[in-house]
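User: Can you recover a sequence for this backbone? Please restate the input before giving your answer.

Assistant: Of course. Working from this structure:
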């Protein structure tokens, strides 16, 4: 039996051009390796990362945009995680939306806002856990990655995968790679990091989307000209890592 794969995808969104960005998401989802069950895309990739656009590009979930994304899932056979500015009543969140062929399966709202994001978004205060074809997954957005206590909530919820979507700047690329690997190692889970590439309103993004194994090793990564990378998620990989580094078990013993 072939194990399902998870993919990380990156691209340079067109600011405010939702149709073009959805087309790009569709092309990348269609291009991932066979047996890919889930593809992860960057923070605010549906609209592009620009806090000045939030009021004019806010998106209802569910709604017409998620309906289009659901169609992409059905046509490609690949579940999607995408970033967008979510409107809920009068409140706007920097959100990740997980979609299967059945529609919206989960929404994560960013808990730690970076800089001017706080002028446009409200912060959330809860983790989000979703059962996916590749295992139980938790979600973080960009700056959230700096806070190990947020990742720990997902370890305590027995997550096998930590999905991190970002608009991480080129000047902090080293931090991005170190933190993705650290969260994989200290929570003994796969970390799937999807980041913007290119430039938007003077922000140069690092790209360097990657997947880290539960032993903290980078097992797949994008490169110049290659916008997707994937790996198989196997129970054996998780069990070997957790036997070698039994931090989950030790934490629970200390909590008893």
């Amino acid at each position: 039996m072939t194990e399902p794969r998870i993919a990380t995808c990156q691209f340079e969104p067109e600011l405010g051009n939702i149709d073009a960005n959805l087309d790009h998401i569709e092309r990348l989802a269609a291009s991932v390796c066979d047996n890919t069950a889930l593809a992860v895309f960057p923070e605010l990739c549906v609209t592009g990362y620009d806090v000045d656009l939030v009021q004019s590009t806010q998106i209802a979930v569910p709604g017409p945009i998620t309906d289009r994304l659901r169609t992409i899932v059905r046509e490609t056979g690949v579940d999607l995680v995408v970033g967008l500015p979510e409107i809920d009543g009068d409140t706007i969140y920097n959100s990740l939306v997980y979609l299967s062929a059945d529609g919206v399966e989960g929404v994560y709202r960013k808990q730690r806002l970076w800089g001017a994001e706080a002028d446009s978004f409200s912060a959330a205060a809860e983790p989000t856990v979703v059962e996916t074809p590749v295992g139980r997954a938790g979600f973080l957005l960009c700056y959230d990655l700096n806070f190990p206590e947020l990742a720990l909530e997902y370890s305590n919820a027995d997550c096998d995968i930590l999905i991190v979507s970002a608009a991480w700047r080129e000047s902090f690329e080293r931090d991005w790679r170190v933190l993705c690997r650290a969260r994989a190692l200290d929570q003994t889970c796969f970390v799937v990091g999807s980041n913007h590439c290119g430039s938007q309103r003077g922000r140069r993004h690092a790209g360097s989307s990657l997947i880290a194994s539960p032993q903290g090793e980078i097992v797949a990564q994008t490169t110049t000209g290659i916008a997707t990378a994937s790996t198989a998620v196997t129970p054996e990989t998780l069990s070997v890592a957790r036997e070698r580094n039994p931090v989950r078990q030790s934490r629970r013993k200390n909590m008893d």
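That completes the design. The chain has seven helices and 15 strands.
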